[in-house]
Amino acid sequence: MSTTDNSTTDGTATTDDKPTGPSEGSDVIEPPADSDQPSIRYHTEPLLTPTLALMGSVALAALLGIGYVWNDPEAVGGPELAELVIYGIIILASLLLIRLSLTLLVLWRTRYTVHDEGFRTEYELAYHSKSREIPVEELRGQERERGRFETLFDCATIRLLTGGTDSSLGFVEFVHVPDPDLASERIDEVKRRHEVLDE
User: Which residues of 24-39 are buried (b: 16+ CB within 10 A; e: fewer)?
Assistant: First the structure.
């Protein structure tokens, strides 16, 4: 719930409660009483800075490589070979940057949701949308991974472990989660609540 404070003419404050969609690290979002939708326990979007930092590193490495070969062509066997090496660096860096740009675009449109009945990742891009969800009863555990850039920007990738693999419909991965401790806590809470209800 978001709260908007409005001041009246006599100086007193009134409060209007307006329901909004769930935000990162929000409290429980309860659906309307007449809705069959589950309560949302956690909702967030991936952090984009690790991917942006990786793109910057690729571009910088390419520029340094080109500069080195340009200034010392004999280091790679002469001017003719140096020209080929420079073209190779440009092509390789361009392909990597294109791939990372597509990854960044997908992450920009991605949302992660933890609700009472399962865990979902979804994205919408142009006219294409895709989502994956696993029911809470299929969750066997979770693992957390931090790359160099994820450690630098204090985020992590959380993999929800089921009997599936990354090519199955049952696999869900939360990439570059900005608050991995809170996300893991919410996932565990939903799992424990489900186990208690099943007893």
Answer: eebeebeeeeeeeebe
Of 105, 132, 151, the last residue of a domain is 105
Please give the residue that has the higher pLDDT: either 39 or 63: 63
The per-residue pLDDT for 17 is 40
Give Cβ neighbours of residue 72 (< 8 Å, ≥ 6 apart): none
Residue 78 region by backbone torsions, left for phi larger than 0, else alpha for psi between -120 and 50, else beta: left
Token reading at 6: 């409005």
DSSP state, residue 188: H
Contact indicator for 133, 118 with CB cutoff of 8 Å:
yes
- Model-level pTM greater than 0.90? no
Domain that holds residue 60: 50-105
Q: Of the ranges 16-20, 55-59, 123-127, which is most confident? A: 55-59
CA distance 34 to 53: 46
- Give yes or no for a contact between 170 and 164, defined as CB atoms under 8 angstroms apart: yes
Number of domains observed in the structure of the chain: 2
Angstrom distance (rounded) from CA 123 to CA 173: 13
- Please report which confidence band the pLDDT of residue 125 belongs to, taking 50, 70 and 90 as the band edges: confident
Structure confidence at residue 86 (pLDDT): 95
The pLDDT value given to residue 51 = 97
Contact of 44 with 121, CB cutoff 8 Å? no
